[in-house]
Amino acid sequence: MGDHPISVRNLNHWFGRGEARKQAIFDLSLDIAPGSLTVMVGPSGSGKTTVLTLMGCLRQVEDGSVRLLGQELQGADEPMLEALRRQLGFIFQAHNLHESLTARQNVMMGLQVHGRGDERLRNEAIEHMLELVGLGHRLDYLPGNLSGGQKQRVAIARALISGPKIVFADEPTAALDKDSGHQVVAMLKALGRERGTTTVMVTHDSRILDMADRIITLEHGRLVRDEGAVATLTD
Ligand SMILES: Nc1ncnc2c1ncn2[C@@H]1O[C@H](COP(=O)(O)OP(=O)(O)OP(=O)(O)O)[C@@H](O)[C@H]1O
Predict the structure, then answer these.
(1) What topology is assigned to 34-60+79-227 in CATH?
(2) Which residue ranges does the record assign to the ABC transporter domain (predicted)?
(3) If 0-12 CB within 10 Å is exposed, 13-18 middle and 19+ buried, where does residue 16 land?
(4) Alpha carbons 150 and 132: distance in angstroms, whole number
(5) DSSP for 9-31, written as a single string
(6) What is the position in ligand 1's atom list of the atom closest to the CA of 46?
(7) Which end of the chain is more exposed for a tag (fewer CB within 10 A), N or C?
C-alpha cells in the first residue's frame, strides 16, 4: 500500500490569525490510487480547493501529513517542493493561455518551464500532444480563434506535455458546455490510462461525475462521503 502517489494523513488546515483564525480542513486522511481519476465535490467553501492546493505543493502543509510521490510535504524545503512541482500538471478553470501565442507556442510554455529536450523532438512532442487532444488541425491558431472547449484542451495539452505523474485540475469544465466538458474529462481519463497519470479534479459539475473512478465529498472541511475507493487506508 506504500505506492500511492498521494497519501494524506490527519491533515488539518487553518486560515487567518488570532481572532480571525478559522479551520478549513479537519483531520483528512485518504490515499489516491495510481492512474485513477478522483473527483472532489462539495458545497462552496467546503475546502476542495484548499485540499487540492495542499496536495499540489501550492500551499504549505502545516499540520498532518501529505506524502506526494513518496515525499513528505510537511517541512519540505522550497527546492524539494519545486522538484516535486516539476512532476505535476495543473489545469485551472481560467485556462490562462497566452493570448498572443498560438496553440503550439502555448503548449511549448509547459515544456520551457522544465527546459528539456532538443528542438525537433520537442516540436514533435507538442504536435503529438495537440493531436491527442484533438487539435492537430489548430496548431497555429491563436486562443482568440478557438472555442472555449478548444482553449481548455490546449491548457490540458500544456499541463500534460511534460509527462506529469499527477494532474491537479480545479474546475476544468466550469466554462464549458456539456459536450465539451465531457470531452475534456474523457480526454484526461484516456490520457491517464495511456500514461498512468493520476488525476485529482475539483468540480461543481455533476455532468462529469459518471466518468470518475472515485468521488470524494467534502462538507465544512470534512470528508463526508467516499465512493468508489479501491484502496483501504493503512495505519
Ligand atoms: N486564502 C484564504 N484566506 C482565508 N480563508 C480562506 C482562504 N482560502 C479559503 N479560505 C476559506 O477556507 C474555506 C474553504 O475554502 P475553499 O476555497 O477550499 O473551498 P471550496 O470548496 O474550494 O469552495 P468553492 O467551491 O467555492 O471554490 C472557506 O471557508 C474559505 O472561505
Answers:
(1) Rossmann fold (3.40.50)
(2) 8-233
(3) exposed
(4) 12
(5) EEEEEEES-GGG-EEEEEEEEEE
(6) 21
(7) C
From 48, 55, 224, give the residue whose CB has the most ligand 1 atoms within 8 Å, as the site to mutate: 48
ipTM of this complex: 0.96
* Contact 13 CB / ligand 1 (< 6 Å): no
201 lines ligand 1 (CB under 6 A): no
- Spans of all domains in the chain: 34-60+79-227
Q: What is the pLDDT along the chain (235 residues), one digit of tens a residue?
A: 458 999 999 999 999 999 999 999 999 999 999 999 999 999 999 999 999 999 999 999 999 999 999 999 999 999 999 999 989 999 887 667 889 899 999 998 888 644 555 788 888 989 988 988 889 999 999 999 998 888 988 998 898 888 899 999 998 887 777 887 888 788 888 877 888 899 999 998 888 888 899 999 999 999 999 998 654 444 4
